[in-house]
Amino acid sequence: TQTTHNPSNFIFKQKSCCANTQDKPKNITINYKELFKESLKNYKKLLPYIVVAVFIGAFIHGFIPQEILQKYLNGNEILSIVLAAFLGIFLYLRVETIIPIGLALLQMGISQGVIMSFLIAGAGCSLPELILLKQMFKIKFLFLFVMIILGVAISFGIFINLI
């Protein structure tokens, strides 16, 4: 006898090496059509924020004169590091774009600590990411998450400038 399986539904039985789950077997069914629909719905919610973040990044890259960036990001080192970390949080930085952005900032004469603070904050947290996480976590957790990312970015930026 040949059995056919519906590729859109799979049933997984939960097992655990650390707890006794065999008394109550639970089945998890994955419906790929519903999963795809839910993914599209989340994508539609997130798309406007990604577009805005990309436009902000393009605006900074193409329209803000180099002198303005140098003025605000090369003045008071601590203030510049904090400003760069906050700016990084609000931009949508992809991992693939971090190195070119960092090199462009370095060529503008911006200090390595400011650049690292900006890149760590941007890679660690972004506005679209926070919007997605808000669906799963309370606002207190998101605030703590942002504060930890900012703390790490600022601390590392200061540390880099001390070296």
Automatic annotation (TrEMBL):
Which superkingdom heads the taxonomic lineage of this protein's source? Bacteria
| Alphabetical UniProt keywords | Cell membrane, Membrane, Transmembrane, Transmembrane helix
Give the GO cellular component terms, alphabetically. plasma membrane
Answer yes or no on keyword Secreted: no
Protein localization: Cell membrane
Which spans are transmembrane here? Answer: 46-64, 76-93, 99-120, 141-160
The way it spans or sits in the membrane comes to:
Multi-pass membrane protein
- Name the protein family: Belongs to the UPF0718 family.
Q: Which named protein is this?
A: Organoarsenical efflux permease ArsP
Organism, as annotated: Campylobacter jejuni
